[in-house]
Amino acid sequence: MYNQIFSLLLTMAENGEVDVHDIRSLLSSSERDYLVRNNGDQVAVATLQGKKLGLYFSASWCPPCQRFTPNLVDAYDELVAKGDFEVVFISADEDVESFNGYFSKMPWLAVPFTDSKTREALDGCFKVKGIPHLVFLDENGKVLSDRGVMLISEYGAEGYPFTPERVKEIKEQEEEARRNQSLRSILESPSRDFIIAANGNKALVTDLEGKTIGLYFSMSSFKKSSDFTGTLVKVYNELKAKEEKFEIVMIPLDDDDEESFKEELNGVPWLSLPFKDKKCEKLVRYFELSTLPTLVIIGPDGKTLHPNVADAIEEHGANAYPFTPDKFSELEKIEKARQEAQTFESVLVSGDLDFVGGKDGVKIPVSDLVGKHTLLYFSAHWCPPCRAFTPKLVETYHEIKAKHDAFEVIFISSDRDQASYEEYYSTMPWLSLPFGDERKQSLSRLFKVNGIPSLAALGPTGKTITTDARGLVMLHGAKAFPFTDERMAEIESEYAEMAKGWPNKVKHELHEEHELVLTRSQGYTCDGCDKEGKIWAYNCADCDFDLHTECALKEINGKKETENDEKGNEGWVCDGDVCYKAS
Q1: Is there a contact between 137 and 48 (Cβ–Cβ < 8 Å)?
Q2: What contacts 289, CB < 8 A, 6 or more positions away?
Q3: What is the pLDDT of residue 534?
Q4: Which residue has the higher pLDDT, 314 or 563?
Q5: pLDDT for residue 574
Q6: pTM of the full predicted structure?
Q7: Pairing between strand 212-218 and 304-306?
Q8: Residue 27: which residues within 8 A CB-CB, separation 6 or more?
Q9: Cα(66)–Cα(58) distance, rounded to whole angstroms?
Q10: b vs e for 197-227, b when ≥16 Cβ sit within 10 Å of the residue's Cβ?
Q11: Which of the four pLDDT bands, split at 50, 70 and 90, describes residue 8?
């Protein structure tokens, strides 16, 4: 993202694609030459001459605005003391009460709510298509950037004065920091050389040097983070019991509730950066955080050892320590051996739980699954994509079962209560784990279920064939059985044979602007007949236009029109979404 922002800003500057505005005429009107503060004070527009400005288009009814405004307040509070920077709020609120309530949280100026003409004119002048929207102007009224929301979100006050040159400078500084990374450069700031414990005690960052450090990016309000915290506490305590040189430093990302932060820190045995410390935002950018939970590992030399070991800890616990390439290579070999030895019993039996449930509460021994191809269906009634996929899976199940009796599906529920589970399961013809079964958690971890619906395919011995059977069912239906790589290769060969002789490109009267290209597709809606299609389409990528092969190759305006075949679709048999070459 940083490269994109910088490249865009620099290109605009070099090409002269920026506007220059007269601040007085921009922000004044024939009846008004002032702006207002939230206490009612009037401030002459003339006092803004020579200052850099942020024009902030926002509204109280807009959730993204409400989330962004506190970030802008933080940046403003740092910058306003410079004396050469100001922000002007241009409201999109619908009534004065909403405007006043929202503006009361802002320390800057605003165009009066009553001056709707100026507000509308500013919207048009800066081509505001969505909010929050933030435009930065230099002291001469020249547009520095109309992507101020991104710049503040990424860099905060550090991005000032929000020029392409400043963004480039920050990037170069970050690259230099990466080249010379140390634990101190990561965790210390100019005004702070310590981190904190739950009891308020301070620990010097230098005391951690020489240890393996886990930087735990934590957001307690995010369920995946809070769930992982419990697992991480167990691993941490196990490693400390072994007297390993390992520490964790929490990077708190909940920035709206200090009491929640203190409560979370009291519940864990490790250290943390202070609440709302500016380093937290910088480390998010520095380590290019893209998911939660994330546990970055810093080696004893202060260099990054691994960008995120959260999955490894979920799967291997303390055995993943010390998180080195050699350790991960060792774990990979262990995992391959486990997969080779995997059976239905090793997957589905846990203590006395050696059965799955059939209809009417019948208990089916796990041993009865041996010799059957089996799908594990992770789903829930509350999940709309699950409810949409289940009928397709039911149809596929019946088609496969009619030809292959040695086939089964097991429902693994994420429903929230027994009644929802029973209602949802009543629509399914297959087996199930009982509601609330403790095996669900280990199965979800084993098959890396990060979202539902999810469908894993096991072979007759219980060995995993694929964890992406859902995609295969969606694309191929019962034809995908038994979901092996060999079967997929056969299907691909069939589809390639199907397309032999079809022209690579066609012209069509429904899309005369461009040629349509024969393209593989997992799913689309035909722009000719408005029906669903898959496998093959004639597509215009520029216009997102698709035609069934049947629609693209049929007679057009009394003649058969293709690029390379004067005979058109003669000799082809069309069946639903697909046209086949006649044998």
Answers
A1: no
A2: 217, 283
A3: 86
A4: 314
A5: 45
A6: 0.62
A7: unpaired
A8: 35, 45, 48, 88, 111, 118
A9: 9
A10: ebeeeeeebeebeeebbbbbbbbbeeeebee
A11: very low
Q: Which among 396, 420, 422, 423 is positioned nearest to 407, based on CA atoms? A: 396
pLDDT at residue 563 tops 60: no
The residues near 115 (Cβ < 8 Å, ≥ 6 apart) are: 29, 31, 32
Q: What are phi and psi of 497, to 5 degrees?
A: -65, -40
Dihedral, CA atoms, 170, 176, 177, 182, nearest 10 degrees? -170
**351 backbone φψ class: left, alpha, beta (φ>0; ψ -120 to 50):** left
- Over residues 453-473, the mean pLDDT reads 96
Residues facing 20 on adjacent strands: 142
Phi, psi of 183 (to 5 degrees): -60, -35
Structure-model confidence comparison of residues 563 and 430, the more confident one? 430
Q: Which of 267-273's residues contact partners 24+ apart within 8 Å by CB, and which partners?
A: 267/229, 268/198, 268/229, 268/233, 269/233, 269/236, 269/237, 269/240, 270/216, 270/236, 271/195, 271/196, 271/197, 271/203, 271/247, 272/195, 272/196, 272/197, 273/187, 273/195, 273/196, 273/249
Each residue of 24-83: pLDDT tens digit? 999 999 999 999 999 999 999 999 999 999 999 999 999 999 989 999 999 999 999 989
pLDDT at residue 3 above 80? no
Dist. CA 338–CA 180, nearest whole Å: 40
Span 196-253, pLDDT tens digits: 998 889 999 999 999 999 999 998 888 888 889 999 999 999 999 999 999 999 999 9
Residue 461, helix vs strand vs coil: coil
End-to-end Cα distance, the chain = 52
Is there a contact between 75 and 157 (Cβ–Cβ < 8 Å)? yes
| Cα distance between residue 156 and residue 148, in whole Å | 10
CA distance 107 to 88: 10
